[in-house]
Amino acid sequence: MLEVRGLNAWYGESHILHGMDFDVGEGEVVTLLGRNGAGKTTTMKSIMGMVGRRTGSIKFKNEELIGLPSNRIARSGIAFCPEERGIFASLDVEENLLLPPQVAPGGLTLQQVFELFPNLRERLRSQGTKLSGGEQQMLAIGRILRTGARLLLLDEPTEGLAPVIVQQIGRTISRLKQEGFTILLVEQNFRFAQTVADRHYIVEHGRVVDMVPGAQLEANMGRVKEYLGV
After folding, report:
1. In terms of Cα–Cα distance, which of 16, 33, 21 is closest to 58?
2. What is the pLDDT of residues 101-118, one digit of tens each?
3. At residue 23, what are phi and psi to the nearest 5 degrees?
4. Which pLDDT does position 126 carry in this prediction?
């Protein structure tokens, strides 16, 4: 579904990505693992056309995305949930959920979002600033599920969340996979990634330096920890 080849990206004069190569198959959950500053988030933003300059190839369903503006990329069926979540503080939960336009048929209804995240139904009239960190993450994921996008880019969805919420996010990702969504996940919590992903790409200095199948992560934990500096 997603093929990235020789991806380079810059912020101004700073060269961040140095030839990223990886694939995400339809229906897979794939993680990008790496230390802070390795280039994981920049990879996500490059896929979405949110960096000033990028070269190489990014193909989604065999369509080349390099050179396309962000709005065209989003309407092709890719949705991005950033680490900072992007919740509109002045809008309540329902207004946040209804804000993004549908880009394709098949987006989740509000009822289906509430089935995934019952907490959101209870906080329907609460403003974004009144939500806990876990509720904001649920809202950010629920919002992109309404768009009809089938490839979801999730940037650090468990960052700073309580273990019980992390478990709920993990169950949600597993359910979305069962329903046919494809997910590219940026994570530093490799224990969490181990529970949800089919394959793990290790990123260092703006390039992929290793790949570990999900079933082999435990056996290669020493090597992975060395890459991550933990």
Report:
1. 21
2. 888 888 899 999 999 999
3. -130, 150
4. 93
